[in-house]
Amino acid sequence: MNSTSVQTMSSEQVREWIVRNVSAADYRDKRVLLIVPDATRTAPLPLLFEALVDHLRPVVKKVDFLIALGTHPPMTETQICTLFGLSSEERTHRYGDVGIFNHEWDSEGQLSEIGVLTEEQTHQISDGLISMEVPVQINKRIHDYDCLTVVGPVFPHEVVGFSGGNKYFFPGISGPKLLNFFHWLGALITNVGIIGIKGTPVRKVVNIAAEMIPIERKCLTFVVAPDASLYGMFYGTPEEAWEQAADLSAQVHIIRKPKPYKQVLSCAPPMYDELWVAGKCMYKLEPVVEDGGELIIYAPHMHEISITHGHLIEEIGYHVRDYFTNQWDQFKHLPWGVIAHSTHVRGGGAYENGVEKPRVKLTLATGLSPHVCEKINVGYRDPATIDVESFANREDEGVLLVRKAGEQLYRLEE
After folding, report:
1. What pLDDT shows up at residue 3?
2. What digits encode the pLDDT tens for the residues 59-74?
3. Taking a C-beta distance cutoff of 8 angstroms, is the pair 247, 277 a contact?
4. pLDDT averaged over the chain?
5. Most exposed of 176, 227, 245, 297 (fewest Cβ within 10 Å)?
6. Mapping DSSP to helix (H, G, I), strand (E, B) and coil, where does residue 149 land?
7. Separation of CA 133 from chain center
8. In this structure, what DSSP letter does residue 227 have?
9. Pair 158, 184: CB distance under 8 Å
10. Is-contact 361 367, C-beta < 8 A?
11. Would you put residue 270 in left (φ > 0), alpha (ψ -120 to 50) or beta?
12. Confidence check: pLDDT of 1 > 70
């Protein structure tokens, strides 16, 4: 099955589905916190926000929203209104009783430690790759509520296999320590070894951590088309709903190709406004680039490496995994999540006798300067020299154009 053979739901069908399947009795007289994605994920949040608030507000004591930023920058009030499809008047009056909060991952005072992954657990989960004790921290706001409900999409994901479900707690609203641990675990296994696979060690970490949350957990998850319409919705525990959504995502979000390409133009949508998230344009397409081929991330609108982590990435650059593992003492003091991002974006390759050999040539055609690209160890191309349409309909020549990259995974046919 592929996405073209699956019907999407109308707005009215989405509203009806929520009324029919999200039991109001589950929430009666409870304080409810709904955990949602930020603007770096395709999702019909304005529709879901209105439908869920209309459905739950008559029965709950309180309904609020927490934006699962992970380590992304906090959203401004204007950005929040855009994300939820609200005018400033609606935000103040129609929904004045609904709180909307940014997650504060880097503020120790806003985090609560709810448990610890033991050294024995991490050793077992990682099959001996990492053995260490990891504190499990989460946004302390959760303690003000009776029920936490994840509302978010599921896609193939480079760190955990498929996104969604309990990933909205960890790293969505968690502290950096657990995030750094399992992002590096994912990097050690590699993007190609994890992406689009359901049962991964990182998913196991996320689920074990979620079991430590001392508050009821529910999940409304969905599988989304490029235009933000929905292929399907699922409700239940985060584990149950995610299982079903991941199965559907595997059907509609994975595109099989018969042979690898010598050149791929991977176009980043406007929602990827920094390389920290535009890296998905590499993760999702690396499997179909031939050895020695080139992947171009085309994003003229992008002028930042990362608002949060850019200074560290400029310090270490983008490198293959073994560049770091073979010189671990030089890098282990840095945030492991940043190192993981570096190697995920750079992709597969080798580092032997001081020589780095990436499998794929990575070129940025963005708002980043030639100097910055050289500094971070990637190729540069002036985006003004690229005519996107000249890459179209050339698959027979070994050239692939992906107009909205980052959410659909490309794989070779088995």
Report:
1. 52
2. 999 999 999 998 888 9
3. no
4. 96
5. 227
6. strand
7. 25
8. T
9. no
10. no
11. alpha
12. no
Pairing of strands 147-153, 31-36: parallel
Q: Which fold has domain 3-252?
A: Rossmann fold (3.40.50)
What is the total residue count of the chain? 414
Helix runs in 37-173, H state only:
45-56, 77-84, 88-89, 119-125
CA 169 to CA 60: how far, in whole Å?
22
What's the alpha-carbon Rg for the chain, to the nearest Å? 21
In 3D space, the residue among 241, 282, 255, 285 whose CA is nearest the CA of residue 366 turns out to be: 282
- Quick one: CA torsion of 139, 143, 148, 152, rounded to 10 degrees? -10
Task: Give phi and psi for 271, each to the nearest 5.
Answer: -65, -20
Q: Where are the domains of the chain?
A: 3-252, 255-412
pLDDT at 130: 95
Phi, psi torsion values for 113, nearest 5 degrees: -85, 120
Amino acid making up residue 52 = L
Paired tokens of 90: 């609606």
Q: What are phi and psi of 362, to 5 degrees?
A: -105, 125
- In the DSSP assignment, the letter for residue 406 is S
pLDDT at 4: 52
Rounded mean pLDDT, 44-67:
97
How far, in Å, CA of 117 to CA of 130, rounded? Answer: 12
* pLDDT at residue 155, as a whole number: 96
* Cα separation, 158 vs 65, whole angstroms: 26
Q: Which residues pair with 203 in a beta bridge?
A: none
Q: Residue 6: its pLDDT value, please?
A: 78
Q: Please give the DSSP secondary-structure letter assigned to residue 117.
A: E
Query: What end-to-end distance do the CA atoms of the chain give, in Å?
Result: 15
Contact yes or no for 1/251 (Cβ under 8 A): yes
Q: Outline where 272-394 has alpha helix (H).
A: 275-278, 280-283, 310-316, 321-325, 328-331, 336-346, 370-375
pTM: 0.93
The amino acid present at 337, given as its one-letter code, is: G
Query: For residue 249, what are the contacts with CB-CB under 8 A and spacing of at least 6?
Result: 154, 155, 156, 162, 223
Which two three-digit tokens encode residue 398? 């070994």
Identify the three-state secondary structure at position 236: strand
| 3-class secondary-structure state, position 6 | coil
